[in-house]
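ugh finaly. both done.
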Amino acid sequence: MEDLSVILVAIGCLVVLIGFTILALLVYSGLFETVTVGAGSPPIGEALIAYRFARGPYKEAGQTFTEIAHLAPDNKALGIYYDEPKRVPSHLTRYVVASVLSHDDQPVDEDLKKKFEAEGYKLLRLPSATNVVKTSFPHISSLSIFIGVFKVYPEMSAYVQDHKLCAHPYLEIYDGKTMHFMAPLARQDEFYVPEMKK
């Protein structure tokens, strides 16, 4: 009987330790991070991207993000989300996942460009938006992505509604340490890939 009590206490301690570990990881990944939304200059200017267009649940974008991370681990990654998930069924939402081949007058790595084209990626030049709704969130772990998306989008939507703005589409830019979220307030049509215009 004494042995059973010791085992139960050990199991209880283990459960408590696992709970604290999960909580610590969530806190470390940004659970209590404050989100401040505003308007201003975008995090990157004009950019050449190698992209893949898809239709379906946004959560499926992760597979393509992983693929581009293998193809160009040092490049910024970018997602463009065209549909409001609350208004469009998830199987119909449209999005782009891309690697930023160059931005702000950086030279293009022609070999990398050819590598993406050989893998079926298309190229598009995004404009330098003069004004965007924006915020950022720390990219500390994979959990940061889920926490950031959960915390950021309601705040951005509220900001757009409160200020009666027309901001679309929504972009996420990953530079390794930070996730930048933005929605252009001008030149929006230039952020729509040709597949969206058909």
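ok and the 2nd:
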Amino acid sequence: MDLRHVPAARERGWYLALMAPNVKGPNYAWLDPSRLYCHPQGLQDCVADLLQPFQGDPIDMVAGIDAMGFILGAAAAAVLQKGFLALRKAGHLCVQTLAQPYTDYSGRQKVMEIRTDTISPGLRVLLVDQWVETGGTMRAAIELVERLGGVVAGVAAICIEDSEGGRWIREHYKCSHCVPPRLQPCFDHHQ
């Protein structure tokens, strides 16, 4: 799809066609949404779709997960006129942090950190990431926010796959994603 083209009829999720398939092998995610972010209308519509279910909900802050969640999270924070908190991989913050180990979508063990001076008890945080595949990364983010006394106001991602972890997140938190129901099986099976 041409990065200048905007379809006349923009149905929900039209911008998913902007994503590129993996051409580099198994060490990479199966689909790359970063091309979507280069399309001005695609990015705007994606963020609007992610935020639509939270209209009227009390949200105090948006937190994005390192690194691709920073893009959507910062865009969502700007639209909501809220602050943005970066949840980082261990070793990138030079302030006091709280750490949480997790296993990412590829099965690698990692550690996520959150600065301890931004979330006060009761603060309502919208968590944003690019993708929820197995749920391990998002679950670590949830645990960090809740350990600091924050309240997870919701979870937003381009796709929340129908995995065990994805189902757990959907059962316990208000969620938003961009994949229309008719396409969800294709995304779950990486087609």
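summary for the 2nd one i guess: Strands lie at 20-21, 31-32, 61-65, 83-89, 97-103, 109-115, 124-132, 151-160, 175-176.
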